[in-house]
Each structure stands twice: as structure tokens, then as C-alpha cells.
Amino acid sequence: MMTTPIQHPLDYDYDPYFMSDLDNMAIKREIPCFRIYPQDRPEEFIAQTNEDLPCDVQEAHARLFTAAPELLDALEFFFNIMHDHECSVRKGYVKHAMDMARAAIAKATGGHV
User: Fold this and answer.
1) What are phi and psi of 71, to 5 degrees?
2) CA 15 to CA 39: how far, in whole Å?
3) What are the pLDDT digits (tens) for 72-99?
4) pLDDT digit string (tens) for 29-57?
5) What separation in angstroms does the CA of 49 have from each of 32, 41, 78, 95?
6) What are the backbone dihedrals phi and psi of residue 84, each rounded to the nearest 5 degrees, phi first?
7) How many CA atoms are closer than 13 Å to the CA of 29, on its beta-carbon side?
8) How far is CA 102 from CA 60, 70, 81, in A?
9) Stretch (H or E) spanning 34
């Protein structure tokens, strides 16, 4: 069973918030945070990362979250074509599946495949 195509691809932005230092209220400490949202509606974020995690881990989570729809589509496409591998190779479906998977993995890992 194939899912419906992604109608609203996801994206993320670094959107930190600031907290005053308890000893000196003039000092503001940046708290990392990434917000995930539909590309066409950035003001309507649907998730954000856990500020208790290191910034690089938060960004990795944001990348994986935004790549999830493409990863699912690629996996479903692979699943559907593998019942007849020889025919799928002949028709170019395996190459297409590999391209889909490679693009989704690159999005999830920040360009590393």
C-alpha cells in the first residue's frame, strides 16, 4: 500500500530562545531549539526539539523528522517493487527506488549518504 504523496514537505529552522542569567539579569543565555514546520506555512510549526539536548543532536533530530515522509515513500516504493526484482530492474524501478532512498537519506543526514 502506497501512502499519499507528500502534500506539504517539511522543513526546519534554528529558533533559539533566551533565558536571563539568575545572577545577572542583563546576561541572556541562548537556549538552542529547532522548529519543524510545513514548508509552505512556516508560522505553523508542528514540532520542536528538546532544548535539554546538545544543539548538534537537536539538529540531527530535526533533519530526521523532516526527512521522514520521503524516507517512508522510498521504503514503500522498495517494498512494492521487490516482489518481482528482475522485472523491476528491467523497467528502471530499482534505479528509481535507489535514487529516492539516496535523496531521503541525504536529507536526513545533512547531505551524507
Assistant:
1) -65, -45
2) 15
3) 999 999 998 988 889 999 999 999 999 9
4) 899 999 999 999 999 989 999 999 999 99
5) 9, 18, 30, 34
6) -135, 80
7) 9
8) 17, 10, 17
9) strand 34-38
39 vs 86: CA distance, rounded Å: 38
Output Rg (C-alpha) for the chain, integer angstroms.
19
Rounded Cα gap, residues 66 and 107, in angstroms: 8
Position of cell 518481482?
84
Q: What angle do CA 71, 41, 36 make, to 5 degrees?
A: 50
Angle between helices 93-109 and 55-81 (to 10 degrees): 170
Q: Which three cell numbers stand for residue 69?
A: 515522509
Q: What pTM does this model have?
A: 0.77
Side chain identity at residue 90, one-letter code: R
